[in-house]
């Protein structure tokens, strides 16, 4: 038998330009994980995680990246003039999902993550609500990460102290759309002692019914 081939990985550098905000974006991703994004106003690479080593500036000088960005914008304007009214605009329908960073426990601090996928073009707004009321304090967003299907994914983080039955809502909107994508998350009351007590009561009741039926059968 042939030896198994090592898994294939993809290192992608994706530059985009568009009329919506952000008008420019440049990300370096390894598979589905973003490593760096380029800060165009500051003309520097910024690591996605603070522990990552700095990206060597000699590989791609900022001046070259700014030249590529200008070329992208000029090309976009030319293609827009040719394709407007002829080709339909391509748009993806975002998909949102909420999950906690740590196992959820009532009364303990945690962080909720809203993952928004299938984003194209990369221009969406993400907001949070708690029981129908907007939350803005402590909310952070990541830059857009390119995916293998030529779309983008974006994450939003909300630090919380969880309470049972609190309803958290992640709302994704896009300029020009008449609809929003909404995801909900609720901490359910899963007290292990209550679950065990319910299970023991159910088992005792079932055993009692079976013994009763067995007694009746023996009498007959």
UniProtKB/TrEMBL annotation:
PROSITE patterns: IG_LIKE. The keyword Transport does not apply. Keywords: Glycoprotein, Membrane, Transmembrane, Transmembrane helix. The keyword DNA damage does not apply. Its main location: membrane. Residues 88-182 form the Ig-like domain. Pfam families: C1-set. GO terms for cellular component: MHC class II protein complex. GO terms for biological process: antigen processing and presentation; immune response. This is DMA protein. It comes from Chunga burmeisteri (Black-legged seriema). The gene is H2dma.
């Amino acid at each position: 038998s042939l030896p198994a081939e090592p898994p294939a990985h993809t290192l992608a550098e994706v530059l985009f330009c568009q009329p919506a905000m952000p008008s420019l974006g440049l990300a370096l991703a390894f598979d589905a994980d973003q490593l760096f994004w380029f800060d165009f106003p500051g003309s520097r690479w910024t690591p996605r995680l603070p522990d990552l080593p700095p990206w060597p500036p000699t590989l791609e000088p900022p001046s070259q990246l700014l030249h590529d960005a200008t070329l992208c914008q000029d090309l976009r304007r030319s293609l827009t003039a040719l394709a407007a009214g002829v080709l339909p605009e391509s748009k993806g329908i975002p998909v949102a999902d909420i999950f906690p960073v740590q196992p959820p426990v009532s009364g303990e601090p945690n962080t909720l993550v809203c993952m928004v996928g299938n984003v194209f073009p990369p221009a969406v707004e993400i907001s949070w609500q708690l029981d129908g009321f907007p939350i803005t304090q402590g909310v952070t967003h990541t830059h857009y990460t390119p995916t293998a299907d030529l779309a983008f994914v974006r994450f939003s983080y909300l630090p919380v102290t969880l309470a049972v039955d609190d309803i958290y809502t992640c709302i994704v909107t896009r300029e020009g759309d008449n609809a929003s994508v909404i995801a909900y998350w609720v901490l359910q009351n899963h007290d292990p002692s209550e679950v065990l007590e319910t299970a023991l009561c159910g088992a005792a009741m079932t055993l009692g019914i079976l013994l009763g039926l067995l007694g009746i059968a023996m009498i007959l």
